[in-house]
User: Fold this.
Amino acid sequence: MGNGAADAAHPAELEHERQARALAGQVMKFDIVTIFPRMVEAGLVEGVIGRGRTSGLLDIVVHDLRAFTSDRHRTVDDVPFGGGPGMVLKPEPLFGAVEKIRETRGTPDAVLLMSPAGRRFTQADARRLAKAGHVVVLCGRYEGVDERVREHLATEDVSIGDYVLSGGEVPALAIVDAIGRQVPGVVGDEQSVDEDSFTRGLLDHPHYTRPAEFRGHRVPDVLLSGHHGEIRQWRRREALRQTVERRPDLVADAPLDDEERKWLRGLQGLREQDEKQGSE
Assistant:
């Protein structure tokens, strides 16, 4: 049960604030098309995205794909031409949904098709799309989606990783979260967004909180020193170290400065020594 000013605000005041932000072009719009709207809505009511919706910074509408069918059974899928297992999402409802969104919500800047065959979604994509203003997300299901949707409706087909899920709803929620938190004001602490993992092409540094010692494991002394310059240096070095150890594939494209490149040479030298000793 909240007790902040936002909780006490009158609904009319919140609506006025939403309209003012919309007129100022400060609202990020999402339209999500799915056969499981309740599943998607449940993931949008809490946390950062939920607060962004309440404040009017995020305007998110979830559309039931079955509402755009034309038969009494509300059919959204059919058997694949040429035979084979599973069912394929039909093109008509998806085209109809996006056309209705254009008519009622405006022309989107991007139409994303969630697909395991799509290009992997990255932090750079999240930052790029946060500047777009209006994104439509199409959730795939069953064996797949009619190829004409990818070719003639979607502007991009994207994946969140090299694995297969039951549908595009979970990836859609992940992508909306990644994009939404880039919208100014959605995350209260802007510095937190600026320092997210992958923002500079590296993983984040380790984090610690109280107690300073837990079961014999102590927080690094530098974090308790109060010396902000040394803490910043430690965090930069640790971010680089963690990236070298856990995601070395990221290092080649990371925009490192001269000092970080020097640290990198040292870390790579230590790693080569460890590998050499391990092979002896």
User: Anything to note?
Assistant: The longest strand covers residues 110-120. Residues 3 and 9 are 11 Å apart (CA to CA). The chain is about 45% helix and 15% strand.
